[in-house]
Protein 1
Amino acid sequence: MAKHLVLVGGGHAHLMTINQIPVFLDKGYRVTLVSPSPLHYYSGMGPGLLAGVYRPEQVRFPVRHMAESGGGVFVQDAVQGLDPKARTLRLASGATLEYDAVSFNTGSRVDVPGNGALAPDVFAVKPIENLVAARERVLERLARGPLSVAVVGGGPAALEMAGALWRLGRDARTNPLAVQVLAGRRFLSNLPAKAQRLARRSLNARGVEVLEEGYAANVTTGEVLLETGQVRTADLVILATGIAPSVPLGACGLPTAPGGWLAVNKFLQSPAHPEVFGGGDCIHFQDRSLDKVGVYAVRQNPVLRDNLLGYLDGRPLRPFHPGPPTYLLIFNLGDGTAIYWKGGMIYQGRTAWLLKDYIDRKFMRKFQP
Ligand SMILES: Cc1cc2nc3c(=O)[nH]c(=O)nc-3n(C[C@H](O)[C@H](O)[C@H](O)COP(=O)(O)OP(=O)(O)OC[C@H]3O[C@@H](n4cnc5c(N)ncnc54)[C@H](O)[C@@H]3O)c2cc1C
């Protein structure tokens, strides 16, 4: 029986492997992609999707088509766990799937404050496709009257969501849209002071309120309860709070880091189970803790492809070199400008936005089938 490679999640780190499935088939291997959706949305363009700068079809990869056109099998399902000894995956549908090698690129989900469930009119920023529904709901409610939206979260995703909502309200030209950011205890605390200042100034100038009154303890329709006991109200809520692994791999007997992230060695391989690999947000790279940013997921593409093939072939694997700890981030402010940040270089302007748009569109083209 041909050896079976299962790719779990068609995320940013698996795109090259999915596109090169024919290479695996030529060597006599079978490849299956398991994903809850036939489409994978690119997070970097998520804020532009919410704002209406991009259409949904411009910001997503047709991962089902990519897998099937290369001769792979696509299973629309979500992996819930695995038995590393039996080498089987457990799927949400109740089915099981055997593997000889498996790679996880299941990303992260938003950690929903309170009981973990999303109430009506509360949208989590991930998966990014949620932003399609959020956009439709904002437009529908705005057409009926003034609307208030609270963005819960204090990181760059919350900044970009607030900017995108402002843009959406402006371009809708219907009723007033009030946007507030419930930023926890300190807005953008992980960014340098200059980036914080630029972001605040930009939001304040557009009437977006940034509140630093404490973390959200519970979120229900129309209400955000803060850890202090205060309640903030808003018609709609967008959650850009902290992230957690999408699949509880630690509970399945795989070594994980605090938080439940899949531990991998320099070959992006589980130290306890050499047939288990991973990339993107869902891993903890043991050699050096990496930020949960798409930059690393993208850089892992060629190493994952080579090492999955190398493992099946029984050849030596190559190490992943994450690169210098300073990498480029550009935050889309929604007003036609962006904040550029790389090392000590920080500025806001239209050129930063144009650069981000160029890089993102190029990335989308690179991995199209
Ligand atoms: C609004 C926003 C903007 C961002 N902008 C940037 C940016 O500009 N630059 C940057 O570097 N980073 C950015 N990030 C961070 C970036 O989103 C993540 O680091 C990146 O998405 C990680 O990629 P990934 O492929 O690991 O995970 P994901 O993008 O989360 O993809 C995971 C995939 O796994 C699938 N999946 C999930 N659960 C299962 C399951 N149980 N079984 C099977 N499949 C599953 C999902 O459907 C999805 O296709 C942004 C994040 C947000 C929220």
Protein 2
Amino acid sequence: MSEETLKLDGDPQGVVTRFAPNPNGPLSIGHARGAVVNKYLTQRYGGKLLLRFDDTDPRTKRPLKEAYGWIQEDMEWLGCGPDEVIYASSNIETYYEYARKIIELGQAYVCRCEREAFKTKKNQGIACPCRGNSAEENMGLWEKMFAEFKEGEAVLRVKTDIQHQDPALRDWTAFRIIAGEHPLVGSKYRVWPMLDFESAIEDHIRGVTHILRGIDLMDSGLKQKYIYDYFGWTYPEVILWGRLKIEETGKFSTSKMAQDIASGVYSGWDHPALPTLRAMKRRGILPESIREFMLSLGLSDSAAAISLETLYSINRAKLDGSANRYFFLKDPVKLYVEGIPGKTIRLPLHPTFKERGVREQCMREGSCFYLSKNDSQVEKEEIIKLMGLPCVSVDSLQGSIVKGKYVPGNHKGAKKIQCLQDYIECEVLKPDGVDIGYCDPDCEKIGVGEIIQFERYGFAKMEGKNRGKLRFIYTHD
Ligand SMILES: [Zn+2]
């Protein structure tokens, strides 16, 4: 499936790729594509995957200390564990060294213009007065950025072409002053590199051969190539891919999720309504399903809109053989049947794999059964077939109570209905709430973490017990 669409030009021997998420929360399904495809390329062509934390903005992209570990855990779970982990914030001195070199080359300058004034000039293609300073003057000013200048008073710019047709590429900012606490390095640094500078240096010194990059970030490569040219370096191969829009996840950003978790809207990062890998794992979406889904998208640079339904159908096919079947009667109602003979009913745990055994129910004469409320919409005198049990003719419907009597024989075309006589109370946690009901007594034997299928309801994963009830989490239908 992915052999052709994920092929690299020139059939390289050994590749180094990198995955560089923002450490401000755990990974979401949208991140998985980068992790999966980068990992795949290192496995296919040999080489290594770097996990790099571009954590050099302690203000607007302030890292979350716990997120570093979460991201590594998420990658391991996904089967895309990195071969090396790099923290940009622990490599700041290296970026300073390269800044000094580029100043010496006369290709960077400290700009002390007021931000808006610079922008106006730049947009007109006019150089600011700082651009003409000598390398020595710039080196002196650069040193002052570490002690004397305050935030906003000076930035280091990389010289490009001040009349470049795209104003965004003209003399871009490489370093600025931010006096703030960083969760890993505290207040050790106040001159911080911009992402484009840091990432350009990192890619080179780590020997990155291939960069997978969203087409919306195409400018980054164009900016960084100036640095590569000044140093005489070769820029890595870039594969641009189109934006991936996952229909169900549009409204969730990491920062919004963090806010909603803090304010109690969601119980945590693994709440089933959230598109995080933690929530997927909790629900029973298999990591191999996510990998298959992401690889199937290939490396196209056109935008794609996809639905999680596609992921669910891949996952469903993988779970179908392993998940044993049980009944879940949501919002149960009572059914009284007269004249039913007592016997033990045995239904297979899996219709295809009979060797797995059966779930048993003792049917006792003259007792009450339970149906799901959805199944209780029956007509008077209608004959219904209780699954695994005989047929019943409906006598009366009073509120939520159904009464009927046993009718021997097979009645073709009778509506098939799930019912239980003995039951265990259970609840199924869904993205939008909790379904309450009864399930087979044999559900007691399901191990925590096991994924089963509630017939006509959907797949669910056993989470244990909650206030005496069995607790499941909904996977998908
Ligand atoms: Zn200036």
